[in-house]
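Changelog note: in this version the structure field was regenerated for every chain. One regenerated record is shown below for reference.
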Amino acid sequence: MNTNPASNGELGQRPATSSPIVPKTASEALRPEAGTPPPKRSRASRSQLVVFMNFVISSVMLMVLAAGVAVYFGKQEFTEPGPSANGDTFLVKPNTGVQDIADQLERRGLVSDARIFRLGVRAFGNDSALKAGEYEIKPRASMRDIMELLKSGKSVMYSLTVPEGLTVEQALQRIADETALSGDMPATIPSEGSLATDTLRFTRGATRQQMIDKLLADQKKLVDDVWQRRAPDLPLANVEEFVTLASIVEKETGKGDERSRVAAVFLNRLAKGMRLQSDPTIIYGLFGGKGKPADRPIYQSDIQKQTPYNTYLINGLPPTPIANPGRAALEAVANPSKTDDLYFVADGNGGHVFAATLEEHNENVARYRALQKKQADEAAKTINTSGAGDGNVDKPADAGAAGPADGGDDNGGDAGAAQ
């Protein structure tokens, strides 16, 4: 009986074909064994097209990510408070593009980055929505605030006032002196009395010719409207005479409740063939559209100076208006008070007293002279007159001396005897 375990195939039996055990050195035993190698890449994955597409997709993703970051931070800067601590006015000229506007805003320190402003405007679809004008930029206004302001067209507004009673030349001087207007003055001066007395609102850059055209058109419309509603029995031949008399009324009184009565005096005198004897017509004949210097009185000799406008010497109306009449003066002449008055004189309190007869008028003049003397005496008490002489050989005219009107206006009083 064989008791050898190897001969019976029992556990622990060594196969007859096993390889011999090769002894390893210590370094070899410690060396890590190689892992399982990766599978070989397929032919398709090694294609140049696939490699290129992978690059493109990766690049696009990076670009989208970068664009998203740029948009985020750009939007933040577009809406956050701006760099200007004090604000400023900003002028957008007509036909100015978004790029030019953005560059100007950056140069003025109103926005931090012109590119962001330009891109923001375009992102909101406002490329062509920004309007010309002058704008008031508030302190710390954001780019979006500025965009909305320029889109709204709410420009800074300026005022030009032509008061009642200015001559055309004086009105044109105001227009010429207005620095917010642009352009040259017209070569031809409009006719006297043809400009409206009004306050015009305009934006910087409006032209002087536009202002003049507006005043001319407004006055023509006003005169035509009032003339159509005139009383039927006026002793006026045409609309030109109507404007001329209204200009005289305008210069004679600034009190609204007196205009229609002053107009009645002149119309009554015209109807009777009496001379108007109005001081403002003397002044216009002497100084024209420039007007009388404020410190220059009317002298007695002025009353006798022959000019086409001196209504102390000419019959009827002067050849043209002597100023630009306002609506109130035009209305007063078109529909005057129903009175028999032929005279008026200053009452010493800024108004006038009226009279239908020369006798009554002379009494009013006497009262006015007494008041003037009293005021002069009181003034003399407070002024040192010792050694003071009057250098005027030609004395100032005695205002209101039996004349039809004594001016309460800024041009002096009327003088002369009633005819």
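Spot check on this record: The first strand starts at residue 88 and ends at 92. DSSP finds 13 helices and six strands in the chain.
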